[in-house]
Every structure is written in structure tokens, then in C-alpha cells.
């Protein structure tokens, strides 16, 4: 029987060369932009970026005394949890149903994964046309059954429109992981529970769902990060933060204040706060929520 041989590198040059591409990517696209944002958050500059003045914590103080910033934070939390819970629930249901299909199951699975390949802006424009009050098919249907639907003037309707689009965009990602988790569960456990008289509902909550807890926990974290960061394209294409700042999330406010309002210092301070908020949320979940996850 052949023995496995360990490979040792003589010196540090070759291992360093192997790590260099990844380190460069991390530095260029992550560390350097984060350092730039932290630096710019302590500066105040004119609209043309010609002159800058060091102001210390003033940009942060102005943010935490601005009612619109608190409103944007509440909007972000409501939007993020709504998208995460809906996307996880719908994806889990679809994965359970697709896992039962025997004939043509690969076609169903492929069709359910396809929406993830659509660009966020394209998905936003598509749902915007579908939910337009009098032109869109769904918008016209809602008004025809007596629902006063108008996301252009009603902030609540606009929020639901963005939530629906963001949820639809994320379902495919969750479906893929849930389906893989379901297929990894031994069938013997489910069959033994069925023989013992456990119904479908009891088998799901007592056997399937606990075994999916690692996948569910991972997807919960990824969905919250998605809702915080990756929904900018949807919001920009559908509502631009309106009407009346009802869909102005933290990530869109960073863009609106920095690119449109040309307040680079405030925009950089908001990006730093958003980065710390998401990092803290992730640490909190891994530290406390993960203890209840059965691996």
C-alpha cells in the first residue's frame, strides 16, 4: 500500500507567490476601499472634490442627529427581515415540493434556479412593469378586485413592491441550498418515521427541519447580507428610495447622499456604519444563534 507523502516548500518565496493573486484581490477590492471610506468619513469636501477639511467625528454626529437617517435604518431593518423570512419560507416550500417529484424533476429544478441569473436591474424593471397601477398585469388585477394599489404615491405599496421583487430574486439561491440539504438527508430516517405512524407534517418538523438547521442558519445570514447590500439595483430601478423616502434603505442612502447629493464625507460615514452594522449582526448571529443549531 502506497504511503502518502507530505509536500514541504523550501523557503517562503514560492508559497508567497501562490498567495499573491488572492492577497492582491483582497487588498484592491476590500481592504483599500474600506480604508478609503474610513479616511473620507473624517473629511468634509466641496462638491467638486477639490478641497478637503478634517472634521473628525462631525460626519458621524450629523448622521446620528438626522431623523432621516434613523428612518432609513428602520426601513432597512423592516425590509431586510421581510425579504429574508419570505425568501427562506418560499424557497423551503418549493424545495420540499421539488424533492418529491420523480418524473422530470431536473426540469423543475432548473426552471426554479434560472431567476437567480437575472440581473437585479432587469428584475426590478420587470416587476415594476408588472405592478404598475393601471398598466401592469398584477397592478391592474389588484385594483380590479378593490385593492387601492399605487406604489408611486403610497409608501407602503412601494415597500411591498420592492420586497416582492427582492424576494423573487433570492428564492432561487435559497432553493438551491435547501434542495441540496434535503437530498443529503438519509431516506431511511424519513421512512422509519412513516412506518412509526408520523404524518408528513410531523416528519417535517421533527426530522427534516432540524437536519436542515445548518443550511437554514447559513441562508439566514446570507439573506440578511443580501438585503442589506445587494438590493441597491432593485431599489434604484424601481423607486429610487421613494415615495417620500419610504424605500430609502441604508445602502441606497449611501449612494443618494454621495453620488447625487455630492456629500462624500457623510456618504463615507454611512458606509462605515453599514459595514460595522452588518459585521456586528453576523458576529451576533454566529455567537448566539449558532448555539441552537444542530450540526
UniProtKB/TrEMBL annotation:
TM regions (residue ranges): 12-35, 70-94, 106-130, 158-182, 203-229, 268-289
Subcellular location: Cell inner membrane; Cell membrane
Family: Belongs to the binding-protein-dependent transport system permease family. UgpAE subfamily.
Protein name: sn-glycerol-3-phosphate transport system permease protein UgpA
Pfam families noted in UniProt: BPD_transp_1 (PF00528)
Alphabetical list of InterPro entries matching this protein: MetI-like, MetI-like_sf, UgpAE/MalFG_permease
Keywords: Cell inner membrane, Cell membrane, Membrane, Transmembrane, Transmembrane helix, Transport
Top-level division of the source organism's lineage: Bacteria
Organism whose genome encodes this protein: Celerinatantimonas yamalensis
Domain ABC transmembrane type-1: 73-285
PANTHER family, A to Z: BLL4140 PROTEIN, SN-GLYCEROL-3-PHOSPHATE TRANSPORT SYSTEM PERMEASE PROTEIN UGPA
Quaternary data: The complex is composed of two ATP-binding proteins (UgpC), two transmembrane proteins (UgpA and UgpE) and a solute-binding protein (UgpB).
Amino acid at each position: 500500500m502506497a504511503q502518502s507523502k507530505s509536500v514541504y516548500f523550501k523557503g517562503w518565496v514560492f508559497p508567497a507567490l501562490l498567495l499573491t493573486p488572492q492577497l492582491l484581490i483582497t487588498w484592491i477590492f476590500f481592504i483599500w476601499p474600506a480604508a478609503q471610506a474610513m479616511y473620507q468619513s473624517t473629511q468634509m469636501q466641496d462638491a467638486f472634490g477639490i478641497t478637503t477639511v478634517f472634521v473628525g467625528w462631525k460626519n458621524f454626529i450629523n448622521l446620528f442627529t438626522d431623523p432621516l437617517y434613523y428612518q432609513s435604518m428602520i426601513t432597512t431593518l423592516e425590509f431586510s427581515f421581510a425579504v429574508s423570512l419570505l425568501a427562506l419560507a418560499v424557497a423551503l416550500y418549493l424545495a420540499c415540493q421539488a424533492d418529491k417529484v420523480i418524473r422530470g424533476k431536473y426540469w423543475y429544478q432548473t426552471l426554479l434556479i434560472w431567476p437567480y441569473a437575472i440581473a437585479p436591474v432587469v428584475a426590478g424593471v420587470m416587476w415594476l412593469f408588472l405592478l404598475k397601477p393601471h398598466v401592469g398585469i398584477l397592478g391592474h388585477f389588484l385594483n380590479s378586485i378593490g385593492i387601492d394599489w399605487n406604489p408611486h404615491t403610497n409608501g407602503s405599496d412601494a415597500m411591498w413592491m420592492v420586497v416582492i421583487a427582492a424576494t423573487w430574486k433570492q428564492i432561487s439561491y435559497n432553493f438551491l441550498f435547501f434542495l441540496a440539504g434535503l437530498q443529503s438527508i438519509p431516506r431511511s430516517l424519513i421512512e422509519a418515521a412513516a412506518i412509526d405512524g408520523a404524518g408528513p407534517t410531523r416528519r417535517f418538523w421533527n426530522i427534516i427541519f432540524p437536519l436542515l438547521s445548518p443550511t437554514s442558519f447559513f441562508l439566514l445570514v446570507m439573506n440578511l447580507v443580501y438585503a442589506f447590500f445587494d438590493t441597491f439595483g432593485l431599489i434604484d430601478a424601481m423607486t429610487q428610495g421613494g415615495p417620500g423616502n419610504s424605500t430609502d434603505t441604508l445602502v441606497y442612502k449611501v449612494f443618494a447622499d454621495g453620488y447625487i447629493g455630492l456629500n462624500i464625507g457623510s456618504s463615507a460615514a454611512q458606509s462605515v456604519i453599514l459595514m460595522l452594522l452588518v459585521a456586528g449582526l453576523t458576529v451576533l448571529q454566529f455567537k448566539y444563534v449558532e448555539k441552537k443549531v444542530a450540526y
